[in-house]
Amino acid sequence: QSPSVLDAMCTEDADCPMGNPVVRGNGIKTGKCMMFNTTHSTCEIYGWCPVENNTLPRKPLLAEAENFTLFIKNTVHFTKFNFSKCNTLQTNDPTYFKSCTYDPFFNPSCPIFRVRDMVEAAGETFGDLALLGGSIGVRIEWDCDLDHSATQCQPQYSFSLQDRRYNFRTASYYWDSQRRLYRNLLKLYGIRFDISVHGQAGKSMLFPAAVRFGTSIAFFGAATVFCDLVLLYLDAKADFYWKEKFEEVR
Q1: Is Transport given among the entry's keywords (predicted)?
Q2: Position 96 pLDDT exceeds 90
Q3: How far apart, in whole angstroms, are the C-alpha atoms of residue 69 and residue 62?
């Protein structure tokens, strides 16, 4: 193990208990303390070699990926109103989805997004994000007034940068002709898209509106009676109000 790993430093075999992992290291201790160089001794480990190479390219290896497209298909359903809507344009043209690209003004019903456009909408450049990876949040917002035509119920898209670094490791294992076990370890950098959908809908209902209207009228009628009672029996000038409200006939 490299002497840059503190837990791997040793002076005798007792410093390297067999079976213990090297903290922040690359393997399991064999129980032996070995000379790493003329000045350092480190614990021998069971591990894959060579260890991971942390050097990175200076530019994205697949720069053309900025022109890749992402097809996001989303359907929203408001159960209270028995209303469903899809974000794709209902068309009989089989070539439409092969040629269209989303544009918020000229083509808002096309669900095909170019990667570079999504990254730029999140405030980043593709070259910077593709080198070390990153995470982009895609928010789909449905805000529908169902009193209008269903064609006016359209999703709104927004993009946000969640993380400037994103990578993961994967390995493939195989045996050679001498039955020795080998592996290929890959550390992959990429752009991850996290999609979330939010929505709300409203519609005017005749019966609840009629109930509220009737309740309001009844409330104002009750308020009139209450005011009369106060002015006729509790107010200091009740006699004056009584004479103005009622006319005596003799």
Answers
A1: yes
A2: no
A3: 14
Q: Which of 11-25, 62-76, 132-146, 229-243 has the lowest mean pLDDT?
A: 229-243
| Domain presence at residue 15 | yes
Q: Is 136 exposed, middle or buried (0-12, 13-18, 19+ CB in 10 A)?
A: buried
- Is 56 part of a structural domain of the chain? no
Domain membership of residue 92 (yes or no) is yes
In a shared domain, residues 125 and 183: yes
- Size (the chain), residues: 250
Which of 82-96, 186-200, 220-234 is the least confident region? 220-234
- Give the domain CATH number at 143: 2.60.490.10
Flag whether 115 is in a domain. yes
* CA count, 13 A, side-chain hemisphere, 123: 8
User: In this structure, are 184 and 123 located in the same domain?
Assistant: yes
- Report in angstroms the alpha-carbon separations of 51 from 33, 47, 170, 180: 19, 8, 14, 18
Query: CB-based contacts of 65: which residues, under 8 Å, 6+ apart?
Result: 115, 126, 130
- For residue 96, the enclosing domain spans 63-202
Question: What's the number of domains the chain is made of?
Answer: 3
Q: How far is CA 119 from the centre of its chain?
A: 14
